[in-house]
Design a protein that fits this description.
By secondary structure, the protein is an alpha+beta fold. The protein folds into 2 domains: 1-108, Fervidobacterium nodosum Rt17-B1 like (Heat Shock Protein 90, 2-Layer Sandwich), CATH 3.30.565.40; 111-196, Alpha-Beta Complex (Actin, Chain A, domain 4), CATH 3.90.640.20. The protein has 2 helices and 8 strands. The strands form 2 sheets. It has a 5-stranded mixed beta sheet, covered by helices on one side. The longest helix is centred in the first third of the chain and has 22 residues, at 33-54. The radius of gyration is 18 Å and the shape is flat.
Length: 201
Amino acid sequence: MLLIKRPVDIITRVYRRPDITMLYPQVAGNGNLNANLMMNAKIRNAVMDLVKSLEQPDLRSVIEGSFEIKNNQRGILSILLIGMAEFGGAHPMTVTKSLTMDTGTGESYSLHQLFSPGYMEIINNEIKRQIRERDIPLIDSFKGISPEQDYYISDHTIVIFYQLYELSPYAAGFPYFPIPLYMLSDVIPGDGLLARLDYFI
């Protein structure tokens, strides 16, 4: 019997303090109340971490933020939280945080939890290829991803990304590396989260 998993309902919430306005998503309408509570707590904590990373104690920080829903299908919710801070004439700063969660359990997944051993070599080789092909400027030579690397899921693609100054100069923006899941088919466990996405279609 085919089990259809409906997308979860998303409500936009606002976290507001003097000089801070952050829009963020909250999950509603999901059949598992405990999973809802877990996901919403993780999202809220990520928003607080995002604000903390942008605040400058010695400068007036005006912070605004929003979010993007990257995937909301087959029991996988992947979101991107975006915060931007202005410092009264100083260089503005933008930070992004992502969360990918199983809507049935409320669990969130780091990159290394999605794959079997061998995934890092595949992803690193593809990122190196894209750096060459897209002529992406680097601050230093590419050292490879980490097990906790920033990423999100978008349909049949995993997108690896880096923060400002982490890989490229500020002027280059956020380096994003989309990688089709079929390229990682050998390291996606059959009972893993990503196996739900029918990435060969």
